[in-house]
Amino acid sequence: MCTACLAAGMSRRLVLGAGAAALAVAPLVGTAEAQPARAVDTPDAALTRLLEGNARYVSGKMNERDFSANRAARAQGQAPFAAVLGCADSRVAPELAFDQPPGELFVVRVAGNFMTPDGLGSLEFGAAVLGTKVIMVLGHTSCGAVNATVAALQKGNDLPGHIGDLVRAMKPASSPS
Question: Does 73 reside within a domain?
Fold first, then answer.
């Protein structure tokens, strides 16, 4: 376990419990109606596909896509090959960063890219019910939510609405050791 995960309240017991929950609902995998065929069958193949897509994105040689193509088929069900936990940052969507068409990634996003019980449940759903083969945790530099959290903790700022909830959730990982 990484120190950030432990600081965020994620224990080995929580992670193992999540795995057990995923196994418990494994019989439900494939029960959703009319799912498209999955081209990725192993975690290694899923990771390779993500890395190859990211290499295309970085090089500026992304696949051209008609995003309206296959819309009717996608409406019938989903079978994403990977799940992505990422920040809610608006500058790039995970589908673009990994050069994937609609329906291939199951994405959970929250400002500051931290795990909540709801986010964990969503990722478990992706793995146990939709059959994702890998979970990618996608971080980035210059995160405004992290910078705002550090500033709020240093200055004792009061933040409006539920932004304070984000700061409190990120505090364990943002505080110096």
Answer: yes
More confident residue, 33 or 174: 174
* Whole-angstrom distance, CA of residue 145 vs CA of residue 136: 20
96, 137 in Cβ contact below 8 A?
no
Looking at the domain assignment, is residue 153 inside a domain? no
Pairwise CA distance, residues 165 & 170, whole Å: 9
The closest of 129, 133, 170 to 148, measured between CA atoms, is 170
The side-by-side arrangement of strands in the sheet containing 82-86 is 105-109, 82-86, 134-138
CATH number of the domain where residue 36 is located: 3.40.1050.10
The number of domains in the chain is 1
Residue labelled with tokens 């065929």: 37
Q: Cβ(172)–Cβ(9) under 8 Å?
A: yes
What's the domain range around 25? 3-59+68-139
pTM for the model: 0.70
Interval 76-134: pLDDT, tens:
999 999 999 999 989 889 999 999 999 999 999 998 888 888 999 999 999 999 999 99
- Helix/strand/coil percent split, the chain, to 5: 45, 10, 45
HSE-up of residue 90 (Cα within 13 Å, Cβ side):
0
First CA to last CA distance, the chain: 16
